[in-house]
């Protein structure tokens, strides 16, 4: 069977709850200097769901919007994949709930992919491979509500969803070979099946992220460097980078680490002495130390700085305002790049690398190329409008048996609220009568008394 050509991204739609916390206000409520959450973590705001929304409602909303935006006939979809780690049922997949949008086409393949923040990427890879074989259209959904019980991790929560239309003759296609890395680590996991909070070893999780980045980038350059056409290949040779963004400082650290990795990879070659010589003092630093060394981080950040503004900043707009949306995070970064690239979408006729990481862990790095104009992809995103429409609040919402929140807190239509989309949502709400906080209500951070 011949492979279908130019399979890739044909459409993208994002969603995030408009209810948000300003990081400055959150820092004040947490009794820490504002600089820790703003400059320290690099975040501006954090989106969170009220009691009207849950993983199913935000997934329905984003898929419905994608279908309207791209004029998708439900009968044309052959595969529907969901990546999420926001588990509200230990058996039934979110994908099956989404089938209420496809009642006239019950023949759609696919189900949920779960591995922390990586499930959405696995879903995308599955959809791309399926389309290459079958030639049909697929929808990939990545959606999560990121909540932490640990006080230190709380400012790195968030919420969001993305839906991606995958199919042939796409303007954005994969190029080269994708590189995967996976290992058995306990940096972030959810062993308590009755609660939504992860067990997280935050600082260790940053090291796991960087270790995965090291492995992926080194192998990626070896396998795909020739496509970039520069010699030697360094991070500066690539047009754009799109990172999984648990919080912005992690993205800054990841990007600057690529320059340290360039030096390590090339220092034994004829290019060695000329590659980032200011990083030479760190040549013999033990690997483990490099993950935490402040002096190395500062030196690498200085080398990376001239490139950060054009190659990375455009993709950080949405994640800095919505926080970590786990599986959706990297695709919120991609959507931000599509809308915010310096020179506009037309300037994107080039290449970029995408790096996706999921704790536990799974990671991948791959390259996508814009081979045709993407105006139709970007025209309906309205990321700036949606950021402007964010409504910041510090109010604590009490558990209740009926959703008390005004629907106006949920952003642009079409939207779904949990009470109208899922009988299990009603059951969850009723659980609050027994003193158990339902997931959707727990997502309203109890950081200040009602006011
Ligand atoms: C990220 C995390 C570990 C930070 O927790 P923490 O120990 O409370 O925070 P830190 O003391 O490390 O401070 C965070 C940053 O703010 C900086 N900072 C602290 N106070 C500051 C201030 N007043 N002004 C400016 N910066 C400040 C710190 O120097 C640090 O920066 P660095 O990382 O460049 O060294 C925690 O939020 C967490 O566990 N998050 C979830 C884990 C996660 O998302 N992992 C990634 C999975 S992919």
Automatic annotation (TrEMBL):
It catalyses: acetoacetyl-CoA + acetyl-CoA + H2O = (3S)-3-hydroxy-3-methylglutaryl-CoA + CoA + H(+). Residues 414-424 have a biased composition (Polar residues). Residues 172-374 form the Hydroxymethylglutaryl-coenzyme A synthase C-terminal domain. Pfam families: HMG_CoA_synt_C (PF08540), HMG_CoA_synt_N (PF01154). Residues 409-442 are annotated as: Disordered. Gene3D superfamilies: 3.40.47.10. It comes from the Eukaryota. The keyword Disulfide bond does not apply. Keywords: Lipid biosynthesis, Lipid metabolism, Steroid biosynthesis, Steroid metabolism, Sterol biosynthesis, Sterol metabolism, Transferase. InterPro entries: HMG_CoA_synt_C_dom, HMG_CoA_synth_N, HMG_CoA_synthase_euk, Thiolase-like. Pathway: Metabolic intermediate biosynthesis; (R)-mevalonate biosynthesis; (R)-mevalonate from acetyl-CoA: step 2/3. Residues 5-171 form the Hydroxymethylglutaryl-coenzyme A synthase N-terminal domain. It is an enzyme of class 2 (transferase). The keyword Lipid biosynthesis applies. Catalyzes the condensation of acetyl-CoA with acetoacetyl-CoA to form HMG-CoA. Belongs to the thiolase-like superfamily. HMG-CoA synthase family. This is Hydroxymethylglutaryl-CoA synthase. The lineage of its organism: Eukaryota, Metamonada, Preaxostyla, Paratrimastigidae, Paratrimastix.
